[in-house]
Amino acid sequence: MSTSQGRAIGARDALLAALNEEETALQESRPDESGNSDSSGRSQASTKSISGTIFEPHIENGRQYANANYYMPNDDAEETRLSVVHQSFLLLLEDELTMARIPDDIQRVLDVGTGSGDWAIAMGERYPNAEIVATDISSYSQPPTVPPNVFFQIDDAREEWTYGSAFDLIHIRCLSGAFSNWAHIYHEAFRHLKAGGMIEVVDMGLIGVVEPSRASYLSIYNGVLRSAAEKAGITVSLEHLRKTVVEASGLSVLRTTTLEFPLGNHPDDSRLKMVGKMALIAALEGLESTALRLLTKELEWEPASVKDLCSKVVQDITRRGARASVPCQFLVARKLLELE
After folding, report:
1. Which 3 state secondary structure label does DSSP give 260?
2. Any residues with CB less than 8 A from the CB of 72 and at least 6 apart, and which?
3. Residue % of the chain over a pLDDT of 70
4. Fewest CB atoms within 10 A around its CB: which of 48, 71, 253, 300?
């Protein structure tokens, strides 16, 4: 079993066990983060040095955050949730890591906002001859052994990207609210892709149910989340995946695909039923993770009020017949060859 699968499955099994009890449907070498070259001479990425002070952990309302601004936590609970999210994607995509068509001889891959690093590690295991650069604004714990071709580093994608060599593939997943200026992200991606290289951006929308009128707390949650995000200058929607937004950078959109993540065991298909169970775990754990800092900071809610709303949303999502789901959009774009 691979390192990434072992960690994700361990997190999954622990949470699935807890879920079932409640009877709900619910490195051999340690990577160098310095940005230097390893013994093989391969560049480990950015020439930029970012001040460590902006990455000092912040503790608020019982959760740890990477800095004073980004609204998602980076504590152990969030790391476990991210591993379950990764495993959910593997099941949804039938063990594929991306919808982009990857050549066997791919050389360089960039994973922006890598989080727990599961995707980057899986890519390193699957493509051992490729160099995988995985960046984030904070450092999560990594398993004892990491593929020698996977390099983790602290970096802020909102700043200028300064990688010395271009990439064949840039991967960005579940970062809709991370950036207020997606035009900048696409511009930098265009600059750092090889001609013919691809970028895949994957994001989820808001939770929905088949009968919204019977899920009043979910409607309130989604509404206040949108309001808080708008006040913060970010989005929790899928607007950044519009073709016009992406192609303004010079990239050419190849395709967009929307899949539904079921939440719970309501699908008839056995694979989707397992996807639903795992996605439900991630969704329920993510309610507070997503809302706590946004609502307390932007809308001045009391932490207890946020947690109370989240607990009521859980009831809306898990009630019999809710058939809750989350839309997930995959966008693959390409940097055209010079003669195209």
Report:
1. strand
2. 65, 78, 177, 178, 289, 290, 293
3. 83
4. 300
